[in-house]
Amino acid sequence: MSMTSLKPRDGADLDYFRVFDEGVVTATRNALTEGFIVQLERADMLKMVDKARRAFKPIPTFKLPEGKNRWETYGEKATKLAEEVLTQEKQNYVDARANQDLGLIKATAKRLQYLVWIVEDGKPVKLKINIEKRSVGDHKGGHNLQDVMYVGDHDTERLEQIFNVKHQLTKLKEFVPYYPDEVKKIYEEALSLGSLEVM
Asked: Can you give the pTM of this predicted structure?
């Protein structure tokens, strides 16, 4: 891995799999860590050379601390530096898509508002989920008791629509920690809209 590739990539050059897929992230972390070990070792070599030159002494052979290998010497710091790069890449990726996500969050919130609020006795009321046991016929001619969830007047279709629309928001949950506070707030409000009390 070259020294320049140890810098976080720009959000426009990234996609979901490069920054959030576990397998890809592990491979990237390993490559970055190895790259940082090389960089840290090289920096120590250059310091040693510089010190010898300043003292007008012959340049000694570079040695790692007694009884330690490269990983034991630089591994902890290299891993920390690799994690910082990965975190920054996540931030860069989410920053690049934040405006698009904000549009989706607002549109989803509007749709949820329409689905979860009804008017009863002239007042707006948020729907609640009802659960009841129903006898459902099986393929053998018998009957089983099953829980059936619905909102309003036994409206299972509307409840399914609410779940489907809310699912659009849950697809963004990995990005939420990297959103600006304003977008986080709008996301939480939208998510709360789709969270119905169960009777």
From this structure: 0.80
- Residue 74 and residue 59 share a domain: yes
Domain limits for position 123: 101-193
Q: Are 14 and 20 within 8 A, CB to CB?
A: no
Picking from 95, 122, 146, the residue at the C-terminal end of a domain is: 95
Give the tokens for residue 129. Answer: 């989920």
- The contacts of residue 133 (CB under 8 Å, 6+ apart) are 145, 146, 147, 148
Structure tokens belonging to residue 197: 């009390």
The number of folded domains in the chain is: 2
d(CA 95, CA 89): 10
Q: pLDDT tens digits, residue range 86-118?
A: 999 999 999 999 999 999 999 999 999 999 998
The model's pLDDT over 120-168, given as tens digits with 9 standing for 90+, comes to 888 988 988 888 887 777 777 777 788 888 888 888 899 999 999 999 9
